[in-house]
Amino acid sequence: MKKLLGLSVVLMIAPLAHAADIEAGKAKVATVCAACHGAGGVSVSDTIPNLAAQRAGYLEAQLKALKDGTRKNPIMNAIAAQLSPEDMANVAAYFAAQPGAEKGAKSGFLPGVARTHVSFPEGYKDTFTKYHTINFPATRQVRHYFANQAAVQAAREGKPLPAGSVLFVEVYAAKLDADQKPVTGSDGFYVADKLVAYTAMASGAGWGKDVPDMLRNGDWNYAVFTTDKQHRPGVNQAECFACHKPLDSTSYVFTLKQLAGAK
Ligand code: HEC
Ligand code: HEC
């Protein structure tokens, strides 16, 4: 009887022990997921869910849906695409085993991922090429896109953008009419009113070396600047990396086609 009992216990736990490797999950979380969800599954911001103490089966199912695209989120679609079924089982088991977050608790950013080398490109109005404009109806903004000579030249020649490339975006609130609708100018774009912020991406030799492969965009770094040219506090570069990551074939640049056609 004793023996029988022992055998049945082994049979019951063996498949579970085989399914997930919590230590492997912990290691993956520490290098990648921690940048947004925190090393213990308590996330870094209000817009990112806590994963601590969620059920493993739920987490695994979400990762599968994010990988195959049935659940849509540009950041997590890019991350999940890089996870194997084993990775998913491992990280899900790890997060499920963490204690739930206390109310209001937040984790800090991963320093190696959040730190940026990009500085404000003084004098860009004189030396950069304005290559593109996009209206954003949902936010009633219009953005003006600029690039430095190194980036423009490589894009024109169909070459990968080299170290030293800088892409720079002015983000404006559109001028609104009496009905609070954006006013369109004769060029078809919203008339720019107030400058809201600047966003930038730039590359430099070795700038990507501290970024884990799943997030790394070659040697690109990202930044957001306030209207008085300071780094905007609270920017998590991990989000920029994640969303631009799938664009490895276009130097991580969404508007490469427009850049190549810059006059
Ligand atoms: C750049 C930030 C970022 C990184 C890095 C990141 N995530 Fe996420 N994750 C998010 C965001 C944002 C959401 C919310 C998505 C949505 O709204 O649908 C999310 C959602 C999820 C969900 C769904 C949670 C739920 O409650 O439904 C899971 C599971 C998840 N992430 C797992 C991971 C794992 C595992 C990793 C590491 C391999 C990881 N994430 C790395 C930003 C990130
Ligand atoms: C949700 C996905 C997403 C995230 C997150 C994201 N970007 Fe982008 N980014 C885009 C898309 C799409 C474009 C193309 C045009 C546009 O929307 O401005 C773009 C364009 C850009 C450009 C112009 C060059 C290009 O690639 O076309 C810069 C510079 C840029 N983003 C900087 C940033 C910075 C800095 C961050 C992080 C603070 C960031 N992005 C986060 C999706 C994203």
Account of the 3D structure:
- The chain has 263 residues and is an alpha+beta fold.
- The chain folds into 2 domains: 2-107, Orthogonal Bundle (Cytochrome Bc1 Complex, Chain D, domain 2), CATH 1.10.760.10; 124-260, Chalcone isomerase, CATH 3.50.70.20.
- The protein contains 10 helices and 5 strands.
- The chain has a 5-stranded antiparallel beta sheet with strand order 1-2-3-4-5.
- β1 and β2 form a beta hairpin.
- α2 (22-37) crosses α5 (85-96) and α4 crosses α9 (237-244).
- The protein is globular.
- The termini are far apart.
- Residues 6-11 have low confidence and may be disordered.
- The structure holds heme C (2 copies).
Short description:
With about 260 residues, this protein is of the alpha+beta class.
Architecture blueprint of SSEs:
Elements: H1 2-19, H2 22-37, H3 56-68, H4 74-80, H5 85-96, H6 111-114, H7 124-127, E1 129-136, E2 141-147, H8 149-156, E3 166-174, E4 192-203, E5 220-225, H9 237-244, H10 256-260
Antiparallel strand pairs: 1-2, 2-3, 3-4, 4-5
Bound molecules: heme C (2 copies).
Name a few traits of the molecule.
2 domains; five-stranded antiparallel beta sheet; 263 residues; binds heme C; 5 strands; Cytochrome Bc1 Complex, Chain D, domain 2
**Separation of termini?**
85 Å
* Percent in helix: 25-40%
Residue stretches low in confidence (pLDDT < 50, at least 5 long) are 6-11
Give the distinct bound molecules. heme C
**Strand portion, in percent?**
15-25%
